[in-house]
Fold each of these.
Amino acid sequence: MVAVTVIGPGSIGSAVVAVAVRGGADVQVLGRTEAKARAAAEPLGASFGAVGDTLTGDIVVLAVPFDAVEEILGQYHAAFRGRVLVDVSNPVDFATFDGLIVPAYSSAAQAMQSTVPEARVLKAFNTNFAATLHSGVIADQPTAVLVAGDDADAKEALLGVVRTAGLRGVDAGSLKRARELEAIGFLQLTLGMREEISWTGGLGLVA
Amino acid sequence: MVAVTVIGPGSIGSAVVAVAVRGGADVQVLGRTEAKARAAAEPLGASFGAVGDTLTGDIVVLAVPFDAVEEILGQYHAAFRGRVLVDVSNPVDFATFDGLIVPAYSSAAQAMQSTVPEARVLKAFNTNFAATLHSGVIADQPTAVLVAGDDADAKEALLGVVRTAGLRGVDAGSLKRARELEAIGFLQLTLGMREEISWTGGLGLVA
């Protein structure tokens, strides 16, 4: 059985919890407070706790706001060794909404891998609106979760959970492709903000 | 009546010709030779000629291979003044298939705008596989054509043709967003090459 820890039970974190539970994983939810984690975890039968607790997941999904990522990486640095670390962030410059705050030649996920070289970093879920993870569909198509990463086993483990949950897991290539996934996530957010698309829709992937 | 010139009757150029004709435009097709342009134009009732001929389109779609763009920009530099110039390119590094050959902080479309400041440059069609422009659908959804550009009138003119053709025209924002559109086009090509998606599918946009 795959064990998944989701740190950050916000909108996208809670959606990933739902996917992981449907995907048959043993799920732990950690929040800034245990109460916040409980709200996301308890209805789905997941365990919960506060940031700082021991990680039970082999796959750890970091779904805290982007400006809180560094602190978590510092706090759990040793614990992340060998674990699969999933970056779901869209590092948008919210002051301008006209670009990302990571260097153009890189990505948040690649930066995370540099900070925690002992972890096996994946980029995933950042191209999905939360509602489409909960529902599992975009229009009549299964929601596609694009996963980029350099470690094939790590990627297969996450794709397995996603597929068991009934979503379409797509291997999006190496961790370098996180740059393109972050561009997609950003563009999709701008289209949502400008009401060109709804938050229950977005970019779907059609076979 | 909108007049559209398509330079480069290859796979994507021919698909844009079909969209423009369905979109009610007066269409001219220019090829390296008149014979090549004729094959794409004649069955659809478009006029045709060879590169070097006078442009009849107010909207000019540049659909030549990326390494031939510079020559065309030089050749038609004066003629492009005031015209809408549509960049459909995906400037992929085909030697590595691991990135783009334009600077990470820019895009082919922004570079084109710098080269021809008197033209009104748009990025469009680069996120569409040719088959989905011909068919007009991805699965059961109308094919979405994402259009980025700084000139609102230029964008509306192209979106009008696209929508009249029965496709979904989406305003993707300023020309800076060409960077994200090129990331999407590139990622989609890598997924196609790796057979994660078919050439009749790809990324769809769901309302």
Amino acid sequence: MNRRKFIKTTAVLGSASLLKPSFAFSGSSSKLKIGVIGTGLRGQWMINLFLNRPDVEISAICDIDDKMIEMTKEIFRRKGLPIPKIYNRDENDYLNLLSNEDLDGVNIATPWRWHHPMAISAMKNNVHVGVEVPAALSVSECWDLVDTSEKTGKLCMIMENVCYRRDIMAILNMVRLGMFGEIIHCQGGYQHDLRHVKFNDGSQPYGGGVEFGEKGFSEARWRTHHSVDKNADLYPTHGLGPVSPMLDINRGNRMLHVTSTASQARGLNKYIVEKGGSDHPNAQVNFKLGDVVTSVIKCANGQTIVLSHDTNSPRPYSLNFRVQGTQGIWMKDNKSIYIEGLSPQNHRWESENKYLNEYDHPLWKRFSTSKDDLSQAGHGGMDFFIARAFIESIKGAKKPVIDVYDAVSMSVIVPLSESSIKSGSRPIKIPDFTRGKWKKNKPIFGLDDNY
Amino acid sequence: MNRRKFIKTTAVLGSASLLKPSFAFSGSSSKLKIGVIGTGLRGQWMINLFLNRPDVEISAICDIDDKMIEMTKEIFRRKGLPIPKIYNRDENDYLNLLSNEDLDGVNIATPWRWHHPMAISAMKNNVHVGVEVPAALSVSECWDLVDTSEKTGKLCMIMENVCYRRDIMAILNMVRLGMFGEIIHCQGGYQHDLRHVKFNDGSQPYGGGVEFGEKGFSEARWRTHHSVDKNADLYPTHGLGPVSPMLDINRGNRMLHVTSTASQARGLNKYIVEKGGSDHPNAQVNFKLGDVVTSVIKCANGQTIVLSHDTNSPRPYSLNFRVQGTQGIWMKDNKSIYIEGLSPQNHRWESENKYLNEYDHPLWKRFSTSKDDLSQAGHGGMDFFIARAFIESIKGAKKPVIDVYDAVSMSVIVPLSESSIKSGSRPIKIPDFTRGKWKKNKPIFGLDDNY
């Protein structure tokens, strides 16, 4: 067994594998070999970040879109690096990448429906997985990820970058310090006008036309179909992921049930008609996705979580964060905090700034003063941390901080919200993917400045 | 039939009574005779407002609390008015007030559980009703109010003052002008730290102790019991009332079902223990009311409404308003508006101020320049308008703008949210109290500067 294979077999899933990781990967002599499946704009961006690291080598990439492959090769050329092995024969060529290459890990940044089969294949090929959000689209796919990760001992991490947003981590810090008291209610969501993402002119990624599917480019090629086919919270993880550690989800707490309610669907058709005319063929498309989808989750320890999904309407961006406890409340939409006994005026908001600075998370403190330029690291720095977390998890210094249980508990809201909406907002039970281990699992995300 | 009796019989409920109102009440020679049942702090305040009007005489009052009666008499003395007839023998003495006095209308400002029986008795005694929120506490009470109002032809108006809040009416104005496009989603709620209202020292109305019930004063005497007995949205009307006209509820639209989910109950016990010590007898009380209750309503025309009830925790006051359409969005918590095509920067909030000024409602324009001092009229002026609407409705110049269907559709969320929470957040059907008339009813609230 060579060194890489030993790492691949023993590291990461301490609780699932028989052997405990017994060393920290030094990373100096041999780099981790990482593959990237899906080299669209997101995949390219992650490649950029991985290549910034001295301990990572991107040895293989996979995509069926020639334009995206060309753009990706250009990244390597610009950095003076050799072009990695390319898998682009057909949409199943990722299977060859996974079986032929001796990879430590693979980053999956493909259209959503490929996340599950690719993650499963990777783990079965003894490759650790970092999969973009959402990790899976059905309950059975979620269970499959859990079972496969447990059986193979491979990491199945969800690349939920917002968990690492600076304000989120400061608030998590404050939650852990008890400053909000006992947490009673959280809110999150994905309120992002995606109309120019869902439609474009077929050559630029954002806007310029009302095409999607075959005639669209980038996300419009595939993402928009989900708005046609499905009435659900299509994108719950950016809201749910960040509040999960604050609520100790899967680690002392779990989500019991969810109800979802969708508004009428108007925005996408309106956009097509206004930009492309009522004669445009897409003006006849019937979009199932309600413009605003509200989901309410109940937790075993009593807390409620409200998630908002709102991507078809003109609105300023907001992830709708609110964290409320028996002692205080943070509300992102007005950038404010109120803490009883600390805030100078009773019942008056304070700017969040003072608190976000004072309780800046150790991880951010550590890296914002290093040579790593976080402002260039994507989405305000949080992509730097999620890429780093994936690599550090593979290196196995300690248990991964975002694991397969997080991946599926965040993602399962997609199919469950769909079921709830279909049945007139009935509460849908949320499976306990930890099979009872949530009762004894300890919090693990963001405990220190490690990862 | 004398003039008053004629008004009482024919005015107001045009659709329910056989005779249509055929004249506007001139109000110069004979004043409307109004009774007030419940002369607590709210009742006293409304008496103040009614007495400001030249067309109203408060001829009888009723309460069983001697202290409150004394405070009320003082209002009349200060104004140099004769003390009205007092009914204070026992808690059923209101029946004598209603049968003995020849009243045009009665304002009911008693503890919630009395709202329904008092309103029913008033209507059966041929007296128009203005009842404080909520109008009823059960589904059958709601139906009873509807049936009785229809049968007697008497007004059963809910005194939902927030419908008249200046920003709300400006936004309603903008909604009617189509500036938000087709409305898809609204939010509202009652997020108000009531701990100092629910508990006091038995002599002052707000705070100073942790007593309630027999040992409490003012609202703490009765309101707090609802937090002991009931897990529900106890106070939905301040959030739901204002958005109802924006959604044409009962007038072209109706609410179909509601799901409610409650967080754990912590805040009230924490407050008692912290202020009164863990040895205080009230520290043993088991409060059923979850600290945050979230309800989601689905409308016949597709829209969703999110209501938040949050009264047990330290937090700044907010009624959680948000109004969103296919063209733009208003969010009160950051005092902002965004309208596509109007807002100068794409996806950027603007201050709401410009819009609230420009689209100030005609009713506010009319009265904010009159001699009526709205700033002294309670809750930023909105109490002036709700008192005025009640009186104008009785005078019967035209149909009442807030009627019994509004009263019950706003109030029924109390029992329905309780049912939903009890059943694990199941969707509960919302009765069509209009019995199909919502399909043809036309919008009526706030159409002009009349009332």
